[in-house]
Each structure stands twice: as C-alpha cells, then as structure tokens.
Design brief:
The complex is a heterodimer of chains A (278) and B (287). With 278 residues, chain A is an all-alpha fold. Helices cover 76% and strands 1% of the residues of chain A. Chain A has helices at residues 5-38, 44-48, 61-92, 97-111, 114-128, 135-159, 163-171, 176-205, 208-211, 231-240, 245-276, and strands spanning 51-52, 57-58. In chain A, a hairpin with a 4-residue loop joins strand 1 (51-52) and strand 2. The model of chain A has no long low-confidence stretch (mean pLDDT 92). The longest helix of chain B has 44 residues, at 2-45. Chain B is mainly alpha-helical and 287 residues long. Helices cover 79% and strands 1% of the residues of chain B. Chain B has one domain (68-286): MetI-like fold (Orthogonal Bundle). Classes of the chains: A mainly alpha (278), B mainly alpha (287). Chains A and B meet through helix 1, helix 3, helix 4, helix 5 and helix 6 of A and helix 1, helix 3, helix 4, helix 5 and helix 9 of B.
C-alpha cells in the first residue's frame, strides 16, 4: 500500500513541531523546577550571609564574591588577548598556512573538555608554578578556557564591520592602527561584548576546571593567592555531599538566574548589533 | 614624525602577533604538561597494560582503564542515540518549517540550554531521572541509561546549532528545483536537503560526541562510578573523565600519574573526534 506523500508530509510537520516544542519544554521545565524549589529559600540573608556548618545554614556570600572575582578577572586577561588575536587574524593577515595554524590552535582549545583544563591548571599553575589552590590559578585556567569564545565572536564582529568605514578612515589619512582603534573596534563593540558576556556565563557555570585550580575554601578570597569557592562549586558540594537540599536548590536558583540573565543580555546585544549592519 | 607613527604601527602589529600566538602557546603547554605527567606511567607499566587492563587499584599497582574507556564510549553513544534524533529534528524544524518570528524565539531559547551548568544537569538527573529509572526499570538508578538521558539533553544545543547551519547553507535553488518537480516539502527535505547537508550534520553528531565524552560533573553525579564494564543499561559505570575528577584531589605519586595517563587517553580520543568533525565541516564549505 502506498500512503499519500501529502499525508506523510503533514504527519512529519506535526511531529517536528511537537519535537521542537518538547525540546524548548525541557529548558522551561529545568528553569521552573529550579525556580519553584529554590525560591522559598531565597532571601537577603541567603545572599549576604556567610555560610555556617559547611553551608547547612546561613548564606552563600563568599561564593558569590568568589564567582564575581573569577569571572571578572578572567575576562580582564582574556579580552585583550582574544580581541588582539581577532584583530590580527582579520586586519593584519591574509588567509595563509600561518592563520590556519592559529585557527587550528583556537579550535583545538575550544574542543578540550573542562576536566582537562582542570588537570592542566592543577599540574601547571597549582603544582609547578607553586600557586597552590588559589584565585590566581583559577583565573589563569579560566582565561585560557574562555579565550576561544572571545576570539571567535570578536572575529565575526570585526568581519561584519563594513569595508566603507575603513576606507573612509584611510582616506582621512588615518593609519591602520588608528583606523582599528577609532573605527573598527567601536563599530564591532557590541559583537565583542556579546562574546565577553557569553564567556562570563561560562566562567560562572564552570565546575570541573575551577574546583582543581581555585579549590573549594569557604572563606572569602581576599588576595589572588587565596583559595575560594564559586557558586557552581558550592552547589556541587552541597548536592553531592547531601549537605542541604534546600540550600542546594536556592544556590542553583541564584546560579541559573545569573547565567540565564547574562546570556539573554548577550543575545540581546548581538541581535541589536546584527540589525545595525544588515 | 612619520618615522614615529610607522614605528608605532610596527609595534602594534608585533604585539598583536604575540597575542595571536598565545593560543598556540597555551595549546602547547596543555599538551606538554598533560603528556609529560601522563606518559611516564605508560613507559613504566606499559601502554598496553594500562589501556587494556581491567583492574584499577592505583595504590596497589593496578592501572587498568579499559572499563572506563568502554564506559566513556557507551555513555557517548547512549547520548547520541537520544540527542541526535531530537537535535536533528529540531534543526530541521528551525530551518525548514518555523516562521521568522518563531525562529527568533526558538533559536535563542535552545541556545540557552547550553548555558545551564553541567552540575545543574547532574543534580536534576540525581533528583528526577535516577529515581525514575530505579522505580520503573530497577537497579540503583545510577546507570548507563540515566547518564545517557542527561548527556543526550546536554549535547542538544551543539547538535542543533551545527546541523542548523548545515541545513541553512543548502542553496535555495535545490529546494526550489525539488518543489517545482512536484515533491512535497518532506520529500524535498528527505531526498534533497538532508543528503546535501550530510557532512555538516555528521560533524554536529561528532562534536556532540566530543562534548558527551568530555562531560564530567554531571556524569560523576549520575553514573554511579562503579569500576567495571556495565553488563546492562541499568548498571552503574565510571568514565575516563569521572575517574580523573573523583580521585585527583587526593591522589599522589603513581596514582596521580595514572590520572594524567587517563587524561592523555581522553585527550587523544577528543583530538581524533574534533579532527574528524572539522574535516566534515570544512568539506561542506569547500563544496
């Protein structure tokens, strides 16, 4: 028996429709579970108080500070490196074996799983360079880890800056670097910013690479050589060691909300930037 | 004056060159340190004995990681069985069926799935998926099946976004040609678009595999971490990544070296997967 292709067409369309919404449904369910389970335990004290008894009581203030320190310092290091690389790849070279080699390096870095970054950061920064479990070791490891994201988004942003802007700048007798600094980078800024924000989101949510480099001390890190604990690491320890389900859910809520809002903002900025030149 | 600005231009170019080289330097450092820590044990105990040995008791001199290699591949294929059909159908829906406004809502929403940290996936797996498997299918619930389900969801964003790119890059004329011959939309997708986007779609699966095999925190929370090859999908297992993460914080001496050897094996697998995937993506562009 041969089924009418039009009927198959309809069935498939319906199936794909359901499938797509099912997948978005997963996201909605995850966020909803975290929200409803965590919200009752979320209060100012939870945000601003120090944890007590391994986190069984009190708040998560040190881990919030630790997370912010890790994320901000990582982008401070990674942004000049990443944007610089992107500028070099787009403005200073033609496609050649050399740029292919650099791209290969960037792609490879992007493909390395976080546990191997953790392993590397542990042996190189923590042990060989004798930093110990410290904010600095965490920041340096994370810098390398987010570098590919920043390079790729910056490169895309710089490439999408119209040629005419550069030509006008040159015609006003600006040098190459002046053109890049005063014309190209400002025009590409929203795209670059998107990459930076996505990297912040990544640093906030990372666990495997952070726990073996920054450690998991519950104290507030006051210097670069202090160990500290990010929210993701704190959440992992609360959940895995069964310390407190309530605190785990509340921590997950703060964690997920911060990452989602950073990412939504990032996509918004990208969307704005894309509509500018298209 | 002109001299000075020329000098500055050269200086800037040099600095940017150094920045660009930093990625290669970091890659080199990562390779060098993981290999230099991981390879001594290969020489001392024997490469074959480590990758084919089935007993892991690093404090007693047994460094076999064969069950973990097999387990890593099992969860990866499990994740692919769940994630690949779901991801590909989402990508097809996004590129071929959804309207412009729908796409503007769906695509970022699906990308947000990638932003949820792996510890959160692991936690939800423990709280919801593990009991579900335990109550309805038996076993402890910490199993190959639970891990595959969670990893399957985690690799969705990778599969969706890369196969979406592959589908979108199929020239419009292909679609029009097929529709003009009286084919239905699905016939066009099935017989024209999917075959032309094949290499990109395969690349998305392979990158998804790379993501699944490298995933750590979610896996150690759900997999049960038992030290043998699972006999059924309801048995617990330990992956290469899990082995590193579980023991690194307290290991020392040969035990620590053995964890780096595990890292070397993982690194080699990931490199091969990424190489194959890039080959698929580049071939698509050349075509």
């Amino acid at each position: 028996m041969r089924i009418n292709p039009r009927i198959i067409n309809k069935i498939v369309e319906m199936g794909l429709n359901i499938q797509a919404f099912f997948t978005v449904g997963i996201l909605v369910v995850i966020v909803a579970i975290i929200f409803f389970k965590g919200f009752p335990y979320l209060n100012p004290e939870f945000i601003f108080a120090f944890p007590d008894d391994m986190g069984r009581h009190g708040g998560i203030f040190p881990s919030i500070v630790g997370t912010i320190q890790l994320a901000l310092l990582s982008i401070v290091f990674a942004t000049p490196l990443g944007v610089g690389t992107a500028i070099f790849l787009t403005e200073y070279t033609r496609e050649s074996t050399f740029t292919k080699l650099i791209r290969f390096g960037v792609e490879s870095l992007a493909g390395i799983p976080s546990i191997l970054y953790g392993l590397f950061g542990f042996i190189f920064f923590v042990i060989k360079l004798k930093m110990g479990w410290s904010l600095l070791a965490g920041v340096l490891t994370m810098t390398i880890m987010i570098l590919p994201t920043i390079i790729r988004t910056s490169e895309e942003a710089i490439r999408s800056v119209p040629r005419q802007l550069r030509i006008v700048s040159y015609s006003l007798s600006a040098t190459k670097w002046e053109t890049i600094k005063k014309v190209v980078i400002p025009a590409a800024a929203p795209g670059i910013l998107t990459g930076i924000m996505l990297s912040v989101g990544r640093a906030v949510g990372e666990t495997a690479a952070v726990i073996f480099t920054m450690g998991s001390s519950l104290r507030l890190p006051l210097s670069l050589m202090d160990s500290g604990r990010t929210m993701a690491v704190h959440f992992y320890i609360l959940a895995r060691e069964g310390i407190s389900m309530e605190k785990a859910y509340a921590t997950a809520l703060v964690l997920v909300l911060s990452i989602l809002s950073i990412n939504v903002l990032a996509y918004y900025v990208m969307h704005k930037a894309m509509s500018k030149y298209s | 004056m002109i001299e000075k600005s020329l000098l500055k231009e050269r200086f800037v170019k040099l600095v940017l060159l150094l920045f660009a080289l930093s990625s290669l330097l970091f890659l080199f450092l990562i390779f060098m340190f993981i290999f230099s820590e991981g390879s001594p044990l290969f020489l001392k105990v024997g490469l074959w004995k480590i990758i084919s040995g089935s007993k892991w008791a690093p404090t007693k001199g047994f460094f076999g990681i064969f069950p973990m290699i097999i387990s890593s591949f099992l969860v990866t294929f499990g994740a692919l069985i769940i994630g690949a059909p779901m991801g590909l159908s989402c990508a097809i829906y996004l590129s071929e069926y959804s309207g412009k406004r729908m796409k503007m809502f769906l695509k970022p929403a699906l990308e947000l799935l990638a932003g949820i940290p792996s510890v959160v996936y692991g936690f939800l797996g423990v709280v919801y998926i593990v009991p579900l498997v335990r109550n309805y299918l038996g076993g402890s619930g910490f199993s190959l099946l639970s891990t595959s389900i969670i990893l399957g969801v985690m690799i969705l964003p990778t599969i969706i976004s890369i196969s979406f790119d592959a589908l979108v890059s199929v020239p419009k004329t292909y679609r029009e040609g097929s529709l003009a011959m009286g084919a239905t939309k699905w016939q066009t997708i099935y017989k024209v678009i999917l075959p032309s986007a094949k290499s990109g779609i395969l690349a998305s699966f392979i990158l998804g595999m790379g993501r699944a095999i490298g995933e750590t925190m979610a896996v150690i929370m759900i997999a049960g971490n038992a030290l043998k090859i699972p006999g059924s999908i309801l048995d617990p297992l330990r992956t290469l990544t899990g082995n590193i993460a579980l023991e690194l914080s307290y290991a020392s001496g040969d035990h620590r070296l053995a964890l780096f050897s595990t890292g070397v094996v993982l690194m080699v697998i990931i490199m091969v997967l990424n190489y194959v995937a890039n080959f698929g993506i580049n071939r698509k562009i050349v075509k």
